[in-house]
Design goal:
Radius of gyration: 16 Å
Bound molecules: S-adenosyl-L-homocysteine
Largest sheet: 7 strands, mixed
Helix content: 25-40%
Structural class: alpha/beta
Strand content: 25-35%
Number of helices: 6
CATH class of one domain: Alpha Beta
Order of helices and strands: HHEEHEHEHEEHEEE
């Protein structure tokens, strides 16, 4: 069997597992079914595990999130084509690529310089058009604000006010909230400039959201 066919078979299996675990957004499932997650691994010896439902290490002590976590966060964002989405924590670029595959316009910020350059080049090579920025996600992305949706893919110690301000009224933020050990996945809907509705979706584990650049 060629590697492409093998990887496609593994992706189909992964999608079936995600459905079983409660992912129902067909656009999310379709994006996971088409996007080659193995291309986003920095360590080529780990690529064979790319369709396991697990997080793996990438460069600079960071991780590529577990597919279930990516799927759940994306489902909670309620993505529609052409929406403007801000991602905090570009990392491997996989989450940003999923959002782009779903037809969103994606703006993604990374604070680790080495990872930023590597992922920017990778997304370009894969012909996935995502606007990438090197900087501190706590500050958001004022030139392109406001956004329809904001996704934070690192553990936030609190909900950054600056980011809520850069969210449109009617918009949604998905954020893992908590300290280094464990977080609660929160979906926050912005009802008006001053009113928000929050729901929690269980515990999750992300690397910490850190202030400043590295
Ligand atoms: N979305 C990624 C997951 C990345 S892990 C993926 O699909 O692979 C979290 C990433 O957030 C790390 O790369 C980390 O460097 C980055 N990060 C942490 N704090 C940040 C901040 N304040 N601004 C931008 N990126 C941040």
């Amino acid at each position: 069997m060629s590697t492409d066919i093998l990887f496609q078979a593994k992706r189909n299996e992964l999608v079936a597992q995600l459905e079983h675990k409660g992912i129902y957004d067909t656009a999310v499932l379709q994006a996971i079914q088409t996007l080659p997650r193995h291309d986003f691994f920095t360590d080529s010896t780990l690529r064979q595990f790319a369709y396991e439902d697990k997080a793996y290490p990438i460069d600079a002590g960071q991780t590529i999130s577990q597919p279930y976590t990516v799927a759940l966060q994306t489902q909670l964002l309620e993505v529609k084509p052409l929406e403007k989405i801000l991602e905090i924590g570009t990392g491997s670029g996989y989450q940003a690529a999923i959002l782009r595959t779903m037809g969103a316009r994606v703006f993604s910020i990374e604070r680790q310089k080495q990872l930023f350059f590597r992922t920017k080049e990778l997304l370009h090579r894969l012909n996935i058009s995502v606007e990438t920025f090197f900087g501190d996600g706590f500050k958001g992305c004022p030139p392109y604000a406001p956004f329809d949706k904001i996704i934070i893919t690192a553990a936030a110690p609190f909900v950054p006010r600056t980011l809520l301000d850069q969210l449109k009224v009617g918009g949604i933020m998905v954020v893992p909230l908590g300290d280094d050990s464990v977080q609660i996945l929160m979906q926050i809907k912005k009802l008006s400039e001053t009113e928000f509705e929050q729901r929690d979706f269980g515990s999750c584990r992300f690397v910490p959201m850190l202030a400043g650049i590295a």
